[in-house]
């Protein structure tokens, strides 16, 4: 490893899941497969939405942005881990680590904002169906996505700039397979008071937005309950079932990361929670939306058949 001075370091060491060569090969295969499934699944969602005129609706516009964010989120962390396993290395450069922090925070925050926008979209669709296309017009949808990107970028930039002011001395081992913001801050040997204050804001914002989503979903469930016919209830519930599943999966795994990081000293439990949050959830999202949505399944089938026929 490169030399370390009294104020700053040039490299960090990332945790390995196992030191045994056989297990490393197995882990490489598993995560490579999960990464390829994530990229291909989300890319198919984006291509299906962009190529099918029947999917040019607000919900699918948000979904394609969510899929793009999931691809970027996993690409921020998984390829570096795969390279390290292949080269039998634990090293990530200081600049590489800071870059990982910036983009992982950016795309995690983007998921929060997009899921909130999608919850509002489902609320309008079920509670105000006659005014849906008027309220959820192209201008509002574009504005919601633009604001989501801007807020995510600003928030990530603030966190990264605060991280850059910290000094790291001798303890450079990060107990994660990627540079997690909280874990990197814990390694600093300078004052982290300001960073921790922003982290507290981070926790509060992770509480506020899920609360908004939960409140919106409560209104949706209440509206569905007031529908008299069984078919009406089923149709209304089917329009938001996929989103309910994704919201539940996303926030439960995100909460697991924070709880395991705060309450447990076990790096293994924290790593498992991070894998669920940063790898498994983005991989499952395309399956959740495609399996429960007839329009998506039809669009995917049509897209695949067209491409196969051309070949």
Overall geometry = globular
Tally of separate helices: 10
* CATH-assigned homologous superfamily: Rhodopsin 7-helix transmembrane proteins
Strand order of the largest sheet: 2-1-3
Our count of domains comes out at 1
Strand runs, count: 3
Give me the CATH architecture, please. Up-down Bundle
Give the amount of beta strand, in percent.
under 5%
CATH level 1 name = Mainly Alpha
The description of the largest β-sheet is:
3 strands, mixed
Q: Tell me the span between the first and last alpha carbons.
A: 50 Å
Class computed from helices, strands and strand pairing: mainly alpha
Overview of this protein structure:
The termini are far apart. Residues 1-7 have low confidence and may be disordered. The protein is globular, with a radius of gyration of 21 Å. With 311 residues, the chain is mainly alpha-helical. A 3-stranded mixed beta sheet has the order 2-1-3. The chain contains 10 helices and 3 strands. α2 (58-86) runs antiparallel to α3 (94-127).
């Amino acid at each position: 490893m490169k030399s370390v001075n009294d104020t700053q370091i040039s490299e960090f060491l990332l945790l390995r899941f196992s030191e045994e060569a056989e297990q490393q090969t197995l882990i490489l295969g598993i995560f490579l497969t999960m990464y390829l499934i994530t990229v291909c699944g989300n890319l198919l969602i984006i291509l299906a939405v962009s190529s099918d005129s029947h999917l040019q609706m607000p919900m699918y516009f948000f979904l394609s942005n969510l899929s793009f964010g999931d691809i970027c989120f996993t690409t921020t962390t998984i390829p570096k881990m795969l390279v390290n396993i292949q080269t039998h290395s634990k090293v990530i450069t200081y600049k590489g680590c800071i870059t990982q922090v910036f983009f992982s925070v950016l795309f995690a925050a983007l998921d929060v904002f997009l899921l909130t926008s999608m919850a509002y979209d489902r609320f309008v669709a079920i509670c105000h169906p006659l005014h849906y296309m008027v309220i959820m017009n192209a201008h509002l949808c574009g504005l919601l996505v633009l604001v989501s990107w801007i807020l995510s970028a600003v928030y990530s930039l603030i966190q990264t700039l605060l991280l850059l002011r910290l000094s790291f001395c001798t303890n450079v081992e990060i107990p994660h397979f990627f540079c997690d913001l909280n874990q990197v801050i814990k390694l600093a040997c300078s004052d982290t008071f300001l960073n921790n204050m922003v982290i507290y804001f981070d926790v509060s914002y992770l509480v506020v937005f899920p609360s908004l989503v939960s409140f919106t979903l409560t209104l949706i469930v209440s509206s569905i309950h007031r529908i008299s016919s069984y078919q009406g209830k089923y149709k209304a519930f089917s329009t938001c079932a996929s989103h309910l599943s994704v919201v539940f999966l996303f926030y439960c795994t995100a909460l697991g990361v924070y709880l395991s990081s705060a309450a447990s000293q076990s790096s293994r439990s924290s790593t498992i929670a991070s894998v669920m949050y940063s790898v498994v959830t983005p991989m499952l999202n395309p399956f959740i939306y495609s399996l429960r949505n007839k329009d998506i399944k039809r669009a995917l089938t049509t897209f695949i058949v067209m491409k196969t026929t051309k070949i």
